[in-house]
Amino acid sequence: MKISYNWLKEFIDFQETPEVLGDILTQTGLEVEGLEKVEKIPGGLSGIVVGEVLSCEQHPNADKLKATKVDIGVGEPSDIVCGAPNVATGQKVLVATVNSMIYPTNGEPFKIKKAKIRGEVSEGMICAEDELGLGASHDGIMVLETDKPNGTPAIELFETGEDFIFEIGLTPNRGDATSHMGTARDLKAYFRKKLTLPETKDFTIKEDGPIEVAVENSEACPRYSGITIRGVEVKPSPDWLQWKLRSIGLEPINNIVDITNYVCHAIGQPMHAFDADKIAGGKVLVKTLPSKTKFTTLDEKERELNDRDLMICNAKNEGMCIAGVFGGVKSGVTETTKNIFLESAYFSADWVRATAQRHSLSTDASFRYERGADPEMTIPAIKLATSLILELAGGYAASEIIDVYPDPIKEKEIDITFQNFHWLIGKTLDSKLILEILNWLDIKTENITESGFKAIVPAYRSDVTRPADLVEEVLRIYGFNEIELDEDFSSDYLAEFNEHEPYRVQEDLSRFLAGRGFSEILTNSLTSPKYHEKFPLGGEPVAMLNPSSEELTIMKTSPVYTALESAAYNINRRNPNLKFFEFGRSYKKEEKKFVENEWLSFYLTGNTAEANWLDEPRKNSFHDLSTTVMGMLKYAGIRKTEITPSEKGTLYEYGVVIKKEGKMLGLLGKLKKELLSIYGIKQDVFHAQLDWNTVIKLYKSDIAYEPIPKFPEVKRDLSLVLDKNVSYADIQALAFKQEKKLLNRMNLFSVYEGDKIEKGKKAYAISFFLQDKFKTLTDKQIDKSMNSLMSLYEKELGAVIRK
Q1: Are domains 2-40+161-191 and 412-482 of this chain identical in fold?
Q2: pLDDT (tens digit, 9 = 90+) per residue, 538-555?
Q3: What does pTM read for this prediction?
């Protein structure tokens, strides 16, 4: 939400700088996430001066250019080449001098330099309206009617100004603070100063065909106010109103619409102006329409209504507006509008929130109604808007103010003791101070005794419903920073935490992976159902009750779905060499329960590196990813894992299962082409995913070390011919089971399958590294170990030892 510093000053008097005021707003609960300086005229017309065209001649080398001499009040006249068709001798013009910056209405800012244009010197620029950010016209240069002397800064001719805009991260409970007046209310309590409300001028009523109102659903619309105004002239708003709206990021439309936007952002009451002549039957009905009724909104999109969408209809039961959310395409104010009906209503937050979510709509109106508007603000808003319309658009009030309010919303009453404040704040505050702060926040106090009182909370504070809320109100104005810490404060009382906090483990492993060239991705938890339909993974998906779009209707059952979208996006933009990792979740429905799993996933595709003069590029392989994953596990202290081939399933063309102590830790393999084709990916993608909760449990941050052995390691090689179904993992497991004492490590350096060995067989070439940490191995010991291993392989695996 954007709040203007200058606009706030109209509601309350303060002298604090924008930076200091931002800190105050944050302390009182309206967190300022950003502060931006905005200028009414970008650049403030710095370096732009009044000049007089002394001569204007045809450019000798260009038919559409003129060579002029311009007096800018300093020294000799300046030579300026100008391409405007209306430049002429004797004109008073605006000149951008050399080294000044130009901020055009459309386009990027640029600096004026002394230059030669088609051979003629040009020392500046005679400017058009749009070139200075003063408007949109580019028909020709601006010709001034002024008696100001040449060289006068342009800032003296135009009303310039600057403002500071606060970007406030408004929490959903603070519906009272969705306007400048609402923000000023907190400052009123902080500074102990009164508010100045916008001036409303009295107006007379001339009954002339008033629009009737009937509310058929008072649950969704507890209060509906309106007025008919006739004889208006729709035209651009005055400069002051356009500047106010532009400063907070709104584009002016016309005087009627701008006034409704002004009132909304000034005092927090959303309003809507209807073209009264387009209201069939001269009657407004506030009701619901049958499900699947078609309705076209202002953005020209046809929407299908729900029977819980509150509508503003005409006498023919035709929808004109989705109440509190969005107007219709046929009932809005246009340049030809002469008569209007002005709506100012209080709609139920629950109804508006549900409708806005159903139709994926978020507007200034729904933003405020969803958080809870002020039911007592509908009439003041109508009076303010009507007085402004009569002043800026003419016309007359053709009806009394209509106010349908059958069941007025009552103020909340909350009983509380002073002890409640002391307990929750952790400090004893003076009772008079507590009452004073609440009163400045418009919370009345009654039945005051030594022990407590009754608080009367205004209807616009929908978030204050219980004693704890009253304590919070006092504390945010008193100041959280004013609560001193006890001298004996310690962390002894804190609950015990796991030895390894998940976020710290995540940071540690992220650094490890980033150091190996991997980039972290963060993808949506929602995904398209088409992926699961074409390639089901992970179980039954969880469907969204109120999807934000037609494409995102289910929770992802596997992290693969959204990660491959990221991979495809990069590959399609000629970035095919990818190394991704992601900490994410998957979701599924299982026996009427919702199951959520956390994963650390890896994705590897493309080449290991870009081509260079020294090396040819090599494609990433299964083993490249395997090296990274196993290296990370080793770094995390998760050693002695078991690797077994995975069964043929839906995910991999081939792969392995990673286990620890017999329990599955993760999967690693090459993704199936059928899955990749859904995303249009034509290159191999290698994938791994680890159960994150298991990684956390097994993670060991302690650095394990031991002295470097003093005695050398001995290497012996074996070539084994085995049945094709015998894996290297089988060979490795047998070796370490047999030779626990001397076998230090193993390395597979060659695998062969071909016509030089028997069909159905394959040959492994393996290095065995033997070492005794306490003495040098003798040939006898080495031969004994190797003979033992060869005998074992021959007996257990039917190996043929190639000698």
Answers
A1: yes
A2: 999 999 988 878 789 999
A3: 0.62
